[in-house]
Amino acid sequence: MSAIESVLHETRQFAPPEALEKAATISGMPAYRALAAEAEQDYEGFWARLAREGLTWHKPFTRVLDESNAPFYKWFDDGELNASYNCLDRHVEAGNGERVAIIFEADDGTVTRVTYADLLARVSRFANALK
Q1: Domain limits of the chain?
Q2: What is the pLDDT of residues 79-120, one digit of tens each?
Q3: Contacts 24+ apart (CB under 8 A), 39-44
Q4: CA–CA distances in Å: residue 111 to residues 99, 107, 118, 125
Q5: What are the Acetyl-coenzyme A synthetase N-terminal domain coordinates in residue numbering (predicted)?
Q6: Contact yes or no for 116/96 (Cβ under 8 A)
Q7: Could you give the CA distance from residue 83 to residue 63 in angstroms, rounded to a whole number?
Q8: CB-side exposure of 60: number of CA atoms within 13 Å?
């Protein structure tokens, strides 16, 4: 049996646009390496910090990872959150309601942009219909 051999050796690097670089959550490889090192040194503490900083919890978790029934691990199993709230409401409440949440391009090429505020209104109407 023969092995697959790569004949293309790409060495070019493409820098991101300056605006994208300035808006990035991780500012470059040194910041990425620091984040990866933090996760490797204390993965439970790392994920606990990110979960507390990045999500709104209805009932805060006290346990990050339950490994008692491997391989069926449970993350944040004693905490409670509302996924819809975290995806929509909190962004509208933070003043980002007019930002585009979804860009949809139909088969005919028609493009529809839906803001967070509009998407929240649509989700709320649908949720009320389910009551």
Answers
A1: 16-78, 82-131
A2: 999 999 999 999 999 999 999 999 999 999 999 999 999 999
A3: none
A4: 16, 9, 16, 23
A5: 32-87
A6: yes
A7: 19
A8: 6
